[in-house]
Structures are given as C-alpha cells and as structure tokens.
Design goal:
Helix content is about 45%, strand content about 15%. With about 170 residues, the protein is α/β, with parallel strands linked by helices. The chain has a single domain, classed as Rossmann fold, CATH 3.40.50.720. It has a four-stranded parallel sheet, with helices on both faces. The longest helix has 26 residues. The radius of gyration is 16 Å and the shape is globular. GO terms for molecular function: catalytic activity. This is Protein HTATIP2. InterPro entries: NAD(P)-bd_dom (IPR016040), NAD(P)-bd_dom_sf (IPR036291).
C-alpha cells in the first residue's frame, strides 16, 4: 500500500508502475468537498490516476462509477461521473470495465443521516427487489475482481446494477 498526495499525484508516478490491473473507487461528496472539490476528486484525480496507471503498464482499468452517469446530465454528480467515464476510456487501456452501481449499501464511520435513512429503506426494498435500487459494497468488490478474472469481451464493458449483482455472486 502506498499513500499518495493527490494534489501532487504526478510526483507519485512510481506507485503506478508495473501493475497489470488498476481498480478505482475514488470519490467524495459535494457536501464534504464542495462542488469544486467534488469535481477535482471524482473526475480530475481519477482521470490522472488512470493516465499514470496506463503509462506504468496497466492493461485493464476497472472504474466504479454510478448508475445514471451521463456527461450531458444537468445534475453535477451524474455529469461528473459521465465525464470521468469518458476520460478513462480515452486513456486507451487494452480493457476498461466500468461498474455503475445503484445506491451502495455499507456501514460508514462518518455520520450521513439522510444516506442512513435511504439505506434502511433500500435495504428493505432489496429483500423484495434485490437488484433494482441498491447493491452491497461487498458485491461490487467481488464483481470488480470477477470481471478481471473473466476473458475480455471487447475493449470497454459497462456493468449496470443487475450485472454487478450477478457477477458479484459468481
């Protein structure tokens, strides 16, 4: 494990050398970082990390994005997720897998009351419609690993929430 300063990521290029696969789940919230900080973390840092990984020899990049990601969206969150998907694809990896999970179900150390309420509700809904509106983070992690272990099907593969559930159970 290497700790890097994302404000000076270029100085840490050596940390990105010699890896066949890159996994990226980097992100923050607008509430925590402000609009500019959110864009910097969720788009700029991710795109720069992808570029460094590719320059370091990475062949397959796996990006956790979001359901509804769309570079043309009027909503900042979805627009930034769509923009970073496009930027990562443009880097030119041999394979790029983009996961678009719905609401992530997880335990957090920090307090996010509205997210907690949504998770409680969606956790109950998931008992009836398990792949519709949410996904446990453990399932996303298993899907990320599983997509690397499968033979490649094209240069770019986008996995929506249902496919994440299926692959995460394999």
């Amino acid at each position: 494990q290497v700790v890097v300063d994302f404000e000076r990521l270029g100085e840490h290029a050596a940390a990105f050398q010699g890896h066949d696969v890159g996994f990226c789940c980097l992100g923050t919230t607008r509430a925590k970082a402000g609009a500019d900080g959110f864009v910097r973390v969720d788009r700029d840092y991710v795109a720069q990390a992808a570029e460094l990984a590719r320059a370091g020899g990475c062949k397959h990049f796996v990006l956790q994005s979001s359901r509804g990601a769309n570079a043309q969206s009027h909503f900042l969150y979805l627009r930034v997720k769509g923009e970073v998907e496009n930027l990562v694809q443009a880097v030119g990896f041999d394979r790029c897998t983009i996961l678009r999970p719905a609401v992530l179900l997880c335990k957090r150390q920090e307090s996010r009351p509205m997210e907690w309420i949504a998770q409680q509700f969606l956790g109950a809904v998931a008992r009836v419609f398990p792949t519709a509106y949410s996904v446990p983070v453990e399932t996303v992690a298993r899907a990320m690993v599983a997509c690397v272990l499968q033979p490649g099907e094209g240069k770019v593969k986008v996995l929506e929430n249902r496919a994440i559930h299926e692959l995460g159970k394999a």
